[in-house]
Prior knowledge:
- The protein is of the alpha+beta class.
- Helices cover about 20% and strands about 35% of the residues.
- Strands 1, 2, 3, 4, 5, 6 and 7 form a seven-stranded mixed sheet that branches.
- The radius of gyration is 14 Å and the shape is globular.
Amino acid sequence: xxxxxxxxxxxxxxxxxxxxxxxxxxxxxxxxxxxxxxxxxxxxxxxxxxxxxxxxxxxxxxxxxxxxxxxxxxxxxxxxxxxxxxxxxxxxxxxxxxxxxxxxxxxxxxxxxxxxxxxxxxxxxxxxxxxx
Length: 132
């Protein structure tokens, strides 16, 4: 299985991203656009997820439902608007999206398990240092 990673631009916490996706979901299907269809899209669609990077860590994922066409000849990446929280894993920020092999993907948090019970600024710094 193959996944994608993407920076949650403008989001300083998972709650910001969750709210953004929720609001977009009220308006219809949730999708992101990109210039090019990933070459390995068949390995991703319906199986993989888009892992979100916030404060230099993979912290949540959105299952990728499909790929389609968007305005202006762009490609739409259709995602499930409900976030699945994951164990935080350090990841450098990057532009666009990148592939993530299943073996390198962080595990989901189980029900009732919290990601980090620290203030978000402190938790973000500890993740950047690779301590959590």
